[in-house]
Design a protein that fits this description.
CATH topology of the largest domain: Rossmann fold
Mean pLDDT: 97
Largest sheet: 6 strands, parallel
CATH architecture of the largest domain: 3-Layer(aba) Sandwich
Low-confidence stretches: none
Strand content: 15-25%
Radius of gyration: 25 Å
Structural class: alpha/beta
Shape: elongated
Number of strands: 14
CATH class of the largest domain: Alpha Beta
Strand order of the largest sheet: 6-2-1-7-8-9
Number of helices: 17
Distance between the termini: 36 Å
Number of domains: 2
């Protein structure tokens, strides 16, 4: 069985996380993703801490075989070449590759690709059917399009930090760089949709992806603009404000998250905690009252969970079909049989050490019934595929490679 995107060639000009996340997903679906890095600097994560090598993980590079752990995760199933896009010969080679490619994806600052003369309009001349994806912090239009952004700036800009954490505790970002990874997922979706459009019409197009747009579109399903009118603080901790109870509760040896999303859940929960006396209570029996008096509701649940182990709480709630989960720490997540069964925890291979190293990576999250998906190859050595790819896609003869290297073009 072939992978869904087998035969699709993606020229990957991205760096750091948002773009590499997008091309990682495309590679997992079978696209031939060709990372293109400048000859001098290369991928900034390839040899940046934390390092993973024969002696384990560290912030200092202990051996010549150590490589950046982020690179080893994000470059899986990709090819790597070096090419100086600032040089006329480098641009000429790149445009020759574009003529035979299907997708170009970049996450330069707005305007950089045009200054390099490799923007969408220029690439259309080389290949009218090319799908071009630009992934930026704030998008290619709008008054803030030129602002430099990393994940925390985006979380701050769209309000994510103002709604995360406990009330009155000050702004807090989410525990992982979600604006980067979410934008990568949206970019991959946009590329696949544009490829479908091309399949139907023969037309290529540009896809403009903004990290801010993507994160905002996901958090604003919540009626955040109505919170003050409802008498709610924007920081709700672990609550879901539409349900009560719904929170994280302490146990004798940890924490559980549990909640009642329906009246059936609420009745089942009251039975489990032995508080059926609240079933006909003029306040507790009504969701609206519980939402306005959530602290009293949480106290009922916490009093029960606090006298039991996490295992006991999860078993009792699970038996009663009340939604719940233990709050797993990261080591426990790595050992969770469910993720292991679904092949979501992969080992990391270091191509310089030619061995697996300390550190794990996420598996491919989409499970197709008819076609496989996944990362079949480890991250490449930087520049490993330069000669083969340039010969195949740009028609560069082997005799010219040495001259290109001497000139710093590759």
């Amino acid at each position: 069985m072939k992978k869904i995107l087998e035969g699709i060639i993606v020229l990957d000009l991205t760096r750091f996380l948002s773009g590499p996340q997008a091309t990682l997903l495309l590679a997992g679906m079978g696209a031939e993703v060709i990372k293109i890095d400048e000859p001098k600097g290369g991928d900034p994560t390839a040899f940046a801490p934390p390092f993973a090598g024969p002696q384990g993980v560290s912030f200092e590079r202990r051996t010549d075989q150590d490589m950046g752990l982020a690179y080893l995760k994000r470059a899986r199933s990709k090819q790597s070449i070096t090419l100086d896009l600032k040089s006329p010969r480098g641009r000429e080679i790149f445009l020759a590759m574009v003529a035979r490619a299907d997708v170009v994806i970049e996450n330069f600052s707005v305007g950089v690709s045009d200054r390099l003369e490799i923007g969408y309009e220029k690439l259309r001349e080389a290949n009218p059917s090319i799908v071009y994806c630009a992934l930026t912090g704030y998008g290619s239009t709008g008054p803030d399009r030129s602002l430099k952004a990393y994940d925390p700036m985006i979380q701050a800009a769209v309000g994510m930090m103002s709604i995360t954490g406990q009330a009155g505790a000050g702004p807090m970002k989410a525990g992982s760089p979600i604006s980067d990874t979410i934008a990568g997922v949206f970019a991959a979706s946009g590329v696949v949709a544009a490829l479908l459009h091309r399949e139907r019409t023969g037309e290529g197009q540009a896809v403009d992806v903004s990290m801010a747009d993507c994160l905002f579109s996901l958090i604003f399903d919540e009626p955040l603009d109505c919170y003050r009118e409802l008498g709610l603080d924007h920081q709700q901790g672990s609550r879901i404000m539409r349900f009560s109870p719904f929170n994280a509760y302490p146990t004798l040896d940890g924490w559980v998250v549990a909640g009642a999303a329906t009246q059936e859940d609420w009745i089942a929960l009251l039975k489990i905690v032995d508080r059926l006396d609240l079933l006909d209570h003029p306040g507790f029996s009504r969701l609206a009252w519980r939402l306005e008096n959530n602290e009293q509701v949480d106290a009922v649940v916490a009093e029960w969970t606090g006298r039991r182990s996490t295992l006991e709480v999860v078993a009792a709630l699970g038996a009663g079909k009340v939604p719940c989960s233990p709050v797993r720490e990261i080591d426990q997540v790595m050992d969770w049989p469910h993720l292991q069964e679904r092949r979501m925890v992969d080992r990391v291979f270091n191509p310089l050490a030619q061995s697996f190293v300390k550190g794990l990576a996420p598996g491919f999250p989409l499970k197709f019934s008819r076609t496989p998906g996944g990362y079949d190859a480890p991250a490449p050595q930087p520049g490993e595929h330069t000669t083969e790819v340039l010969r195949r896609l740009a028609g560069v003869e082997a005799a010219d490679m040495a001259e290109l290297r001497r000139g710093g073009v590759i």
